[in-house]
UniProtKB/TrEMBL annotation:
An example Gene Ontology molecular-function term: ATP hydrolysis activity
GO BP field: negative regulation of cell division
Protein name: AAA domain-containing protein
InterPro entries in alphabetical order: P-loop_NTPase, ParA/MinD_ATPase
Coiled-coil regions listed: none
GO CC entries: cytoplasmic side of plasma membrane; cytosol
Amino acid sequence: MFDPVRKPEASGPPSGRTIPALAALARPALMEALQGCCAELSDLAGLSASEIVLRHGGGLVLVEQGVTGYDQVILTLAVERPGTAVIVISDQLPGHMVRALMKLEASDIVPTSAGVEEIIDVAEQLRETQSIQGSGATSKCWAFRGAVGGAGVSTLAIESAFGLARKVGPGKVCLVDLNLADGMTTSFLEAVPKLDLHALAAAPERLDQRLLAAWCWEHEDGVSLIAAPRNPDADLLATEAAILRLLDVACSAFEYVIVDMPRHMMPWTKSVLGAVDEAIVVSELTVPSLHAAADMCRETDALRADGAKSKLVLNRMFPKKRFRAEFAVDKAEQAIEREIHTTITSDWDAARTAVNLGKPIADVKPKSPLVADVAAFVEKLLPEDAIEASPQASKKRRAK
């Protein structure tokens, strides 16, 4: 709760650290406290949102919830200058404000009880994030969603995460299981579900990279997993603000975030699909599945503000050498008037063995056609510069 009578200390921080330049829209008592820790402090009071964007867009901006015009500043920066680093002081930020912060390349939320030292810590982290992202290393978020039940979405999300880690290196990929009520990723990988959904729902604005690290389980292959214990009431706790904040912080901590989404519509589904870099619809090559996939792709495309189309992936395809009662992929594309981005070959025996051992399929049967198809799929989605910088690319150059 915002407390207008609380007064932070006016003296500078005991550590002697300072923020080089900060533009702030906050109550007078906090502005006074910030004077002692900022080499250059700009008071935004009395300026319009457009003036703030013009003068301070791209820099470091602090806004306090409750101060007149704070919301308009955040919304305008998110649209016009997303490269701005923004610190928000709030104990309960509305969902639409959290969505706006997701559009910024660097942002964080601190509670109203935060002192000057904590604000300096956050400012330093955001300046570092700004520096990294300014060099071109931005995070990528891919969301997987099934058009029909049983399409193998969780398996494909898992294999994509591990295939991606093999290309870009360990420690850079995070798999987030948003099937909160009945997710299977932890069972497939014999992982520990560490996400505290009650704590996240109670105060999503308190989530930062340190707390996120405590909620991550890391596989020996270098992929981190965020999943909650199975709970039939979990969907009731998953508010839009909580889920968006979780993904926002995950994207600030990892270069690649893979999201395993439920097929049924949740309060946050549209916001997530509209914000991710790639929306992937998973289906099978049957007439009902194709119709459902085409409908879901069209619905998803309508949410994509950048105009990027969703990717349709057909999973559990029969091997090419095997006789099958399926119609050709090109005929399927004509029937639904939609390009099929990728097909993934079925390997039931390898998949069954992998889940029984708690390992990705590539660790059990590295030459499986499913593993090869996933690797090709991941490479098609990766930016060219990421492929060139990958460990595998480096090995190939050294081999030459």
